[in-house]
């Protein structure tokens, strides 16, 4: 029967098969997301009742309760401004460091790179105790500083540095030389030539850093104790009844709200992220 | 505009000596071409003049200023790179005006100079385009335009035509020549293509292993090469070099002659019994306007001959004749005999 199909019909059949296969593969990824949105609109009893993706009645009031239960708007803002600050600082520092490692010849450059790689291999959990003592000694406990400084100068900064380094390695030497002939300093070459050309890599670093900072849980848990200084991951785990049991309907409504900025950022920059990973993988 | 003076200029990368003491005088407004085989140091020498490479030793003057320690942008030179090195994130207008912007030239003046250069290079219609939207020749013109707007004393070209196809290369070559005529600036041009060197240069500098082999006009280099290297490097196909004994048929040789050079285009084919030398045609290469014959001489060497019109068949026996004025005599050290005897 297949033999009697024309080329275009065969192509259509193939396309339908592929689409169905991809939809099946996507279910484990999409279903929890839909479940979260659906449960955020249900009552606490309905969540554990007959499983259904469509709520019997839509409880929009959950979203109001989320803001009444704790200073959620403040916590949301905390996460947002910390993530933006960490992203901006990481972009600045990792692009400078990546440029230096890729383009400058200096004594010990290889050692620095090795040191950075080895730092990446140390699990975050191992460094949390010395970091705790360091932060306490600096008098920065229960402030947002550790949530900014530790990612910028920690694993996220290093990952960003390596990503930028890979990108800058592929930068044609002649462009830098043209910059020199035009009167630019090293810093000027970085700022006016290398950076504008590395927008895909910067976008990737920005996304990774923003996501990491947005989802950071261990550090806020260790360093933050005041409710109004909580960030979103801490705040989400704080939707509990007096006995410590989770209030799922509020937690899932709040989680739905927490996902929104991530989705926006990803949708805005997904082309550049994919481009950047492809470039750094192939050219690096 | 400005002259250029190199005195015992040297460049070492670690222990490797790349430029081994170059002396050169370039007059104001002169078009000088550096040629030589790969690795001879011609690009390094150009980069030393531009300031992109430090000078290890010696003195480099532009005009009456010693510029050994002067930053590239303050030397009054502009460079056109082999890869054009256009900034991909800027359009043609911004690419051309970038250097002026860095030097804080006021906006209106910048615009005026860019428009002037664009008109000169016929880039007016392309000013809003990005480099990726330009052809190779257009990119090359933008790169030249970027050099022009800075009003440099000296233009430096680093193999600027090597990325273009043959036809465009010929066209751009004539555009560069016309540009030099119009601007009258001092220009230093690096190429490994000796046709480019011969057609463009007022003066050619032949380099080998970081040393200057000969400096002279294209005609001087072609007609009176100082040594076998220059004799064979300038001219295409390259000059035949025969041991003195094998070239005895050409007539009397100055004392001390070890080898005799004769250009393929200066040899003529005659009947075998009437030739000064004789041999057998091994290969015939038809190139349209002329043919290139590979002739195996009776003495054992192979000689190249360029002839117009009909060429003998392969395996045919031929005689070769040359005018004595076209013969070049070299001593055992490879230097031209006229030098040995003044």
Named at the architecture level, the CATH assignment of the largest domain in chain A is Orthogonal Bundle
Number of domains of chain B: 2
Distance between the termini of chain B: 36 Å
Question: Which structural class should the secondary elements of chain A be placed in?
Answer: mainly alpha
Structural class designation of chain B? alpha+beta
Largest interface: A-B, 15 and 23 residues
The CATH homologous superfamily of the largest domain in chain B is named P-loop containing nucleotide triphosphate hydrolases
| CATH architecture assignment name of the largest domain in chain B | 3-Layer(aba) Sandwich
Total helical segments of chain B: 9
Uncertain runs of chain A are 280-284
Instruction: Give the overall silhouette of chain B.
Output: elongated
- Radius of gyration of chain A, Cα only, in angstroms? 24 Å
What is CATH's topology name of the largest domain in chain B?
Rossmann fold
State the end-to-end distance of chain A: 49 Å
Determine the strand fraction of chain B and express it as a percent band. 25-35%
Radius of gyration of chain B over alpha carbons? Answer: 24 Å
Helix content of chain B: 25-40%
Largest sheet of chain B: 6 strands, mixed
Task: Order the strands across the largest sheet of chain B as they lie in space.
Answer: 6-7-8-3-9-10
- CATH homologous superfamily (4th level) name of the largest domain in chain A: MetI-like
Describe this structure in words.
The complex is a heterodimer of chains A (284) and B (342). Chain A has 284 residues and is mainly α. Chain A folds into 2 domains: 2-39; 68-283, MetI-like fold (Orthogonal Bundle), CATH 1.10.3720.10. In chain A, 75% of the residues lie in helices and 0% in strands. Chain A contains 14 helices and no strands. Chain A has helices spanning 7-39, 44-47, 61-69, 72-103, 109-120, 124-137, 145-153, 155-169, 173-181, 186-197, 199-215, 218-223, 232-237, 248-283. In chain A, α3 packs across α14. The model of chain A is unreliable at 280-284 (pLDDT under 50). Chain B contains 9 helices and 18 strands. Chain B is α+β, with helices and mostly antiparallel strands. In chain B, β1 and β2 (16-26) form a beta hairpin. The model of chain B has no long low-confidence stretch (mean pLDDT 91). Helices cover 26% and strands 30% of the residues of chain B. Chain B has helices spanning 42-50, 92-102, 107-120, 136-149, 166-183, 194-200, 218-223, 228-233, 337-340, and strands spanning 4-13, 16-26, 31-35, 57-62, 65-66, 77-80, 154-158, 186-190, 203-208, 211-216, 240-243, 259-262, 268-270, 277-286, 290-297, 302-308, 317-321, 328-330. Chains A and B meet through α9 and α10 of A and β6 and α2 of B. Chain B: It holds the Pfam family ABC_tran. Chain B: It is found in: Cell inner membrane. Chain B: It comes from Neoaquamicrobium microcysteis.
């Amino acid at each position: 029967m297949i033999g009697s199909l024309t080329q275009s019909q065969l192509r259509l059949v193939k396309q339908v098969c592929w689409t169905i296969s991809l939809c099946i593969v996507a279910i484990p990824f999409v279903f929890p997301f839909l479940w979260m949105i659906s449960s955020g609109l249900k009552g606490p009893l309905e969540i554990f009742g007959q499983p259904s993706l469509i709520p019997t009645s839509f409880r929009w009031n959950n979203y109001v309760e989320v803001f009444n239960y704790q200073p959620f708007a403040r916590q949301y803002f905390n996460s947002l401004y910390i993530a933006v600050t960490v992203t901006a600082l990481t972009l600045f520092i990792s692009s400078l460091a990546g440029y230096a490692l890729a383009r400058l010849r200096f004594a010990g450059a290889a050692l620095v790179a090795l040191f950075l790689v080895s730092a990446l291999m140390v699990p975050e959990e191992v460094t949390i105790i010395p970091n705790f003592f360091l932060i306490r000694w600096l008098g920065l406990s229960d402030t947002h500083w550790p949530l900014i400084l530790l990612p910028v100068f920690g694993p996220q900064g290093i990952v960003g540095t390596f990503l930028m380094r890979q990108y800058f390695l592929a930068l044609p030497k002649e462009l830098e030389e043209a910059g020199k002939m035009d009167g630019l300093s090293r810093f000027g070459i970085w700022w006016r030539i290398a950076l504008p050309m590395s927008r895909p890599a910067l976008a990737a670093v920005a996304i990774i850093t923003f996501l990491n900072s947005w989802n950071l849980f261990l550090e806020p848990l260790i360093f933050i104790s005041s409710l109004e200084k909580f960030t979103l991951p801490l705040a989400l785990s704080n939707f509990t009844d007096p006995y410590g049991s989770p209030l799922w309907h509020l937690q899932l409504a709040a989680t739905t709200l927490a996902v929104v900025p991530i989705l926006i950022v990803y949708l805005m920059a997904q082309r550049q992220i994919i481009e950047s990973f492809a470039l750094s993988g192939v050219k690096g | 505009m400005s002259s250029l003076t190199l005195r015992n200029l040297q460049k070492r990368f670690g222990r490797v000596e790349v430029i081994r003491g170059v002396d050169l005088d370039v007059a104001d407004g002169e078009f000088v071409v550096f040629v030589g085989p790969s690795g001879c140091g011609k690009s390094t020498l150009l980069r030393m003049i531009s300031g992109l490479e430090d000078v290890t030793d010696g003195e480099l003057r532009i005009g009456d200023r010693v510029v050994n320690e002067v930053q590239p942008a303050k030397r009054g030179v502009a460079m056109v790179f082999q890869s054009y090195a256009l900034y991909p994130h800027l359009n043609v207008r911004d690419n051309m005006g970038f250097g002026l912007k860095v030097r804080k030239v006021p906006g209106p003046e910048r615009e005026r100079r860019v428009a002037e250069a664009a008109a000169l290079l016929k880039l007016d219609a392309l000013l809003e385009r990005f480099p990726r939207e330009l052809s190779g020749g257009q990119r090359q013109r933008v790169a030249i335009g970027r050099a022009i707007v800075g009003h440099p004393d000296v233009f430096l070209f680093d193999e600027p035509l090597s990325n273009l196809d043959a036809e465009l290369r010929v066209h751009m070559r004539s555009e560069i020549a016309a540009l030099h005529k119009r601007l009258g600036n001092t220009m230093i041009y690096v190429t490994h293509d000796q046709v480019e060197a011969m057609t463009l240069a007022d003066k050619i500098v032949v380099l080998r292993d970081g040393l200057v082999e000969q400096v002279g006009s294209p005609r001087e280099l072609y007609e009176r090469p100082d040594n076998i290297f220059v004799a064979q490097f300038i001219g295409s196909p390259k000059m035949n070099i025969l041991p003195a004994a094998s070239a005895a048929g050409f007539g009397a040789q100055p004392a001390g002659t070890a080898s005799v050079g004769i250009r393929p285009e200066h040899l003529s084919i005659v009947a075998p019994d009437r030739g000064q030398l004789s041999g057998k045609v091994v290969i015939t290469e038809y190139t349209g306007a002329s043919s290139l014959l590979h002739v195996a001489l009776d003495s054992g060497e192979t000689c190249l001959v360029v002839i117009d019109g009909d060429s003998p068949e392969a395996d045919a026996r031929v005689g070769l004749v040359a005018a004595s004025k076209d013969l070049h005599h070299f001593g055992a050290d490879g230097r031209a005999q006229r030098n040995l005897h003044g």
